[in-house]
Design goal:
Elements (H helix, E strand, L loop, with lengths): L5 H5 L3 H4 L7 E6 L9 E10 L10 E8 L3 E8 L5 E5 L1 H10 L9 E8 L9 E10 L5 E11 L14 E9 L9 E5 L1 H6 L4 E6 L2 E5 L14 E5 L2 E6 L5 E7 L2 E5 L10 E3 L1 E2 L6 E2 L14 E10 L2 E11 L6 E14 L3 E9 L3 E4 L4 E4 L3 E4 L13 E9 L2 E9 L11 E3 L4 E2 L17 E4 L5 E7 L2 E7 L6 E9 L9 E8 L9 E9 L4 H4 L6 E8 L7 E2 L11 E2 L10 E8 L3 E8 L5 E10 L2 E8 L7 E9 L2 E9 L2
Antiparallel strand pairs: 1-2, 2-7, 3-6, 3-8, 4-5, 4-7, 5-6, 8-9, 10-37, 11-14, 12-13, 13-16, 14-15, 16-17, 18-19, 20-21, 21-22, 22-23, 24-25, 25-27, 26-27, 27-28, 28-29, 29-30, 31-32, 32-33, 33-34, 35-36, 36-37, 38-43, 39-40, 40-43, 41-42, 41-44, 44-45
């Protein structure tokens, strides 16, 4: 194995995930789906602290976002360390309002700020079970409740939702759950996961952007042209039969070409360079500009194909002796051509003014993190001819979304970039105004078919979205759409870098990727499955899902498949997805541990396609392990699921 300085290089991922580290997390949130006006409802929460040891006995903070006319009744907690009460705290309510304004969560909402009666020290992962009583107000409708937790430590609450974990939204209908409409549907994308689950050569990476070579960036139900993928820190080597990395070297960035937008492991082509001896893997792009220093490296951001050229924005990083051991010192625009023999040629590196750092006030701006072409060629609706260039403004209180734009012919002329100042497009990057806050370092902004624009980003251990009315917003309340299960692999594992890939999507589902990483460098070698992108599909529905929803996908599956239910564990409902490559009769049944059939979810003919069924166990089952079995043609598959009350 070749380590060298690569332990430092892999920690460069901290730039993108530093705010995803959490000291606490919500493992369970159990609340009623509906309630009557004036009713007192019971809510149970399980809060776990997995960053230990905890040597300071801080009290715990619990924030609850509720409608204005709801009332707090009581709250208690139990744990292996002790039991106690949680009471109202006007001081922490003020702090919650300061850092998490209620307009992020809807209209006519308020915070209830609570604090525990005492704190504890502990050496092992510890969970606290909270029993909360609230009195429902008289206003009727669908309301999204939210829960936030933190330790009563000065400044910690202001370190963004990733340091103070937030679980939102949790819908409740007053007086009827039918008032609540679930507009977001998510399923895993196993064919994309499998594409990058590799055991030799390229075996995992950080960062992932996809660039349509023909410039068409919109979803399509027809196979598209070639797609170029860019990755940052990448492992090159082998993975043995036990899932361990061997003979492995890390390089700072690599490329991949797919001849269409269909994930096919047989035709994908990876590219990296080799060292002077022609043997060891080496980085594709090494900084070589007037402002670069020996030892600097690039973290690749978003890119676009214009005419015969590929443009990719890149963050330039350098090693330091303080902080995380690295820092950003510039943004560069890489320009190159694709070549069927050498993969790329004519590489140029262009310094940009798209990075600004204020060391006095401790903030910085990085533009180029996400691109949205609104050109005729892109295929996006209502094109205005501009390329929108997004990035975060990072400070001690989190990350804010910023926007610039440029005409395609001026992409190399930085004097022609325009910067959104809140009311108009100006010429100063220092006048940039935030479009929304709480985003992650990597994200995406994409047009969607309802005429709005969708921001996809990472929030803690979840993928989140916001919808906006224009490329510069205003962007509405956020919704967490997916809780990444990979964080359960070990306490060291985290997720980040969530973003959409419209060019890899069909007209019904938006493909979204996120990255998985670990704070334990050794785990990258003992478990090679951690360090690679994962994928999910997002649908934006217009109506509420009923007990059975048939969502046919235009792209016909190649095989029969029964996918893992999501969420899992679940309470009280979960979604079971399956696909069939031809018209056939499908039966899906639920069994208990004794092999007794609980129910048959479906037993009918389906056309070739992908489908999902909602299984609701509200009034049927107790906590425990259950199995669901699919029978179709000669295909039989059984999967396990867990219900937790």
């Amino acid at each position: 194995m070749h380590f060298g300085k690569h332990k430092l290089i892999i920690m460069a991922g901290l730039l993108f995930m530093a705010q995803s580290l959490t000291g606490c997390l919500f493992e369970e949130v159990n609340q009623p789906k509906s309630a009557q006006p004036g009713e007192i409802i019971n809510i149970s929460l399980k809060i776990t602290d997995n960053i230990v040891p905890e040597t300071n006995p801080h009290k715990g903070i619990l924030g609850v976002i509720v409608p204005d006319d709801w009332e707090f009744i009581s709250a208690t907690y139990t744990s292996t360390l002790g039991n106690g009460t949680i009471s109202l705290s006007p001081e922490w309510k003020d702090s919650l309002n300061k850092y998490y304004p209620t307009n992020q969560f809807g209209t006519n909402m308020k915070w209830i700020g609570l604090i525990s009666d005492k704190g504890y020290t502990y050496n092992n992962t510890t969970s606290f079970n909270v029993a909360l009583k609230l009195k429902v107000g008289q206003t009727q409708g669908c309301f999204n409740l939210g829960y936030l937790t933190s330790k009563a430590t000065s400044g910690l609450l202001g370190q963004d939702v990733n340091w103070a974990p937030l679980s939102f939204p949790h819908s409740i209908g007053v007086p009827d759950s039918n008032l609540c409409e679930n507009i977001y549907g998510v399923r895993i994308a196993p064919e994309w996961d499998n594409l990058l689950d590799r055991h030799s050569g390229w075996t995992g990476s950080d960062g992932i952007y996809s660039i349509p070579v023909n410039g068409y960036d919109a979803p399509s139900n027809s196979p598209a042209d070639s797609q170029l993928f860019v990755f940052s820190d990448t492992f090159i080597g082998d993975v043995d039969s036990l899932g361990r990395r061997t003979n492995t070297r890390m390089v700072n960035n690599t490329l991949m070409m797919l001849p269409s937008n269909v994930p096919d492991t047989n035709v994908v082509d990876f590219f990296w360079r080799t060292d002077s001896s022609g043997n060891l893997p080496s980085t594709v792009f090494i900084p070589n500009t007037p402002n670069a220093h020996t030892g600097d490296w690039y973290w690749l951001m978003d890119g676009i194909a214009l005419n015969e050229n590929i443009y990719v924005y890149a963050i330039r990083l350098n090693s330091t002796s303080g902080g995380f051991g690295f820092e950003v010192n510039g943004v560069v625009l890489l320009k190159f051509n694709l070549d069927p023999v050498t993969f790329i040629r004519n590489v140029q590196q262009i310094e940009t003014p798209l990075f600004v750092k204020d060391t006095v006030n401790n903030w910085d701006i990085v533009l180029g993190q996400a691109l949205m072409p609104m050109t005729t060629l892109s295929g996006n609706p209502s094109p205005d001819g501009y390329i929108y260039v997004y990035g975060p403004k990072s400070s001690s209180t989190g990350k804010q979304l910023l926007a610039a734009r440029v005409l395609p012919e001026n992409i190399e002329n930085f004097s022609q970039y325009q910067f959104w100042n809140g009311t108009s497009w100006g010429t100063s990057i220092l006048a940039l105004a935030p479009l929304t806050n709480g985003i992650s370092q990597e994200f995406s902004v994409s047009p969607i078919k309802n005429g709005k624009f969708l921001v996809v980003y990472q929030m803690g251990s979840s993928v989140a979205v916001r919808q906006g009315d224009s490329p510069v917003g205003p962007f509405g309340i956020f919704n967490k759409i997916y809780d990444a299960p990979e964080v359960s692999i070990s306490p060291n594992v985290f997720i980040y870098n969530a973003k959409a890939h419209p060019n890899l999507s069909n007209s019904e589902e938006l493909l979204i990727s996120y990255n998985v990483n670990t704070m334990s460098f050794a785990e990258h070698f003992s478990n090679a499955d951690i360090y690679r992108p994962r994928f999910i599909y997002l649908t934006i529905n217009d109506t509420t899902n009923t007990s059975v929803t048939d969502n046919e996908i235009t792209n016909v599956p190649k095989d029969f498949n029964l996918y893992q239910n999501y969420p899992n564990p679940f309470n009280p409902s979960t979604v079971i997805s399956f696909s069939v490559p031809k018209a056939t009769k499908v039966s899906i049944k639920i069994f208990n541990l004794l092999g007794e059939m609980i129910t048959e979810l479906t037993n009918k003919y389906y056309e070739a396609g992908s489908y999902k069924i909602n299984f609701d166990a509200s009034d049927k089952l107790t906590s425990g392990v259950y199995f669901y079995r699919m029978e179709a043609d000669n295909y039989v598959q059984t999967n396990k699921m867990i219900l937790i009350r």
